[in-house]
Amino acid sequence: MRCKKVILGLLLAFAVGFVCQLARIPVPAPPVPGAALLVFLTSCGYWLTGLYLQRREQAEKREAP
Predict the structure, then answer these.
(1) How big is the chain by its Cα radius of gyration, in Å?
(2) CB atoms within 10 A of CB 30
(3) Which of 3, 29, 61, 65 lies at 20 to 30 Å from 19 by C-alpha?
(4) d(Cα 16, Cα 14) in Å, to the nearest integer?
Protein backbone atom coordinates (compact mmCIF):
# COMPACT_ATOMS: atom_id res chain seq x y z
CA MET A 1 0.00 0.00 0.00
CA ARG A 2 2.83 2.42 0.84
CA CYS A 3 4.49 1.91 -2.55
CA LYS A 4 1.17 2.56 -4.26
CA LYS A 5 0.86 5.92 -2.46
CA VAL A 6 4.39 6.92 -3.45
CA ILE A 7 3.74 6.08 -7.08
CA LEU A 8 0.42 7.92 -7.01
CA GLY A 9 2.12 10.98 -5.49
CA LEU A 10 4.84 10.94 -8.13
CA LEU A 11 2.28 10.62 -10.91
CA LEU A 12 0.28 13.50 -9.47
CA ALA A 13 3.39 15.69 -9.26
CA PHE A 14 4.26 14.82 -12.86
CA ALA A 15 0.71 15.61 -13.99
CA VAL A 16 0.81 19.02 -12.28
CA GLY A 17 4.11 19.83 -13.98
CA PHE A 18 2.82 18.59 -17.32
CA VAL A 19 -0.35 20.70 -17.13
CA CYS A 20 1.63 23.76 -16.01
CA GLN A 21 3.93 23.37 -19.01
CA LEU A 22 1.00 22.96 -21.42
CA ALA A 23 -0.76 26.02 -19.99
CA ARG A 24 2.53 27.94 -20.01
CA ILE A 25 2.23 28.89 -16.36
CA PRO A 26 5.08 28.65 -13.85
CA VAL A 27 5.42 25.57 -11.68
CA PRO A 28 3.45 26.20 -8.48
CA ALA A 29 6.47 26.57 -6.21
CA PRO A 30 8.04 29.64 -4.64
CA PRO A 31 11.20 30.92 -6.38
CA VAL A 32 13.59 29.85 -3.64
CA PRO A 33 16.32 27.18 -3.64
CA GLY A 34 14.27 24.86 -1.43
CA ALA A 35 11.37 24.88 -3.88
CA ALA A 36 13.70 24.29 -6.82
CA LEU A 37 15.18 21.35 -4.91
CA LEU A 38 11.68 19.97 -4.31
CA VAL A 39 10.85 20.14 -8.02
CA PHE A 40 14.19 18.54 -8.90
CA LEU A 41 13.74 15.72 -6.39
CA THR A 42 10.19 15.10 -7.58
CA SER A 43 11.48 14.76 -11.12
CA CYS A 44 14.25 12.43 -9.96
CA GLY A 45 11.74 10.34 -8.04
CA TYR A 46 9.59 9.98 -11.12
CA TRP A 47 12.59 9.01 -13.23
CA LEU A 48 13.97 6.53 -10.67
CA THR A 49 10.55 4.94 -10.22
CA GLY A 50 10.37 4.39 -13.96
CA LEU A 51 13.78 2.72 -13.96
CA TYR A 52 12.80 0.51 -11.03
CA LEU A 53 9.55 -0.59 -12.68
CA GLN A 54 11.30 -1.26 -15.99
CA ARG A 55 14.00 -3.40 -14.36
CA ARG A 56 11.45 -5.28 -12.27
CA GLU A 57 9.45 -6.06 -15.40
CA GLN A 58 12.57 -7.30 -17.19
CA ALA A 59 13.49 -9.50 -14.22
CA GLU A 60 10.00 -10.99 -14.18
CA LYS A 61 10.24 -11.76 -17.90
CA ARG A 62 13.57 -13.56 -17.37
CA GLU A 63 12.09 -15.69 -14.57
CA ALA A 64 9.01 -16.69 -16.57
CA PRO A 65 9.43 -19.96 -18.49
Answers:
(1) 15
(2) 9
(3) 3
(4) 5
